[in-house]
Amino acid sequence: MKARRVFRVGERALLVxxxxxxxxxxxxxxxxxxxxxxxxxxxxEIVPAARTVLLDGVDAPDLLxxxxxxxxxxxxHARVERAVEVPVRYDGPDLAEVxxxxxxxxxxxxxxxxxxxxxxxxxxxxPGFGYLTGLGDPYQVPRRATPRTSxxxxxxxxxxxxxxxxxxxxxxxxxxxxxxxxxxxxAGREPAALxxxxxxxxxxxxxx
Length: 208
Prior knowledge:
Helices cover 21% and strands 30% of the residues. It is built from four helices and 13 strands. The protein has helices at residues 21-36, 61-70, 95-102, 106-115, and strands at residues 5-9, 13-17, 45-48, 52-56, 84-89, 118-123, 130-133, 148-151, 155-159, 162-165, 170-172, 175-179, 200-206. The chain is elongated.
């Protein structure tokens, strides 16, 4: 796998466009691996999104762009690391509807979700909100036809290929399957976000 397109952004940044979310996650993981090994000393920030990765604070962007186009990116492999555990009460108002969309019982839906190892593909929407992948195509669900005007903080939700946790109360159209007391964003913590790009995440069942 190779980077599809690389664009200059301003004087010291590059935007790399990939062909899919899976490719983007693999490319982001490779960037982190190479930076940890000292191969990217000139890159200050690496910011993934759904199909792109932004590299900011690049000392020689034209030189790095040429190198990136030649990289062969290995597939994303399971990493040996401790997952962030998020305790969840599977009490969401849309849980039964999600289970019906999956063609399983509510209990089985809970087992499927809590047994999945998720990865934070990227962050956005609100500080602390991570877009988590891992469920796979059979378990994609649509957004609600009518978004809610207020989704409680800590709501665990699904939409398309992603799972997310609302860090604060806000409008939203995702399917709500549970809730957590975990603090997703704390400006006094380092890092402030509990879920950071590339991190592994597991949801641990709490009693209702």
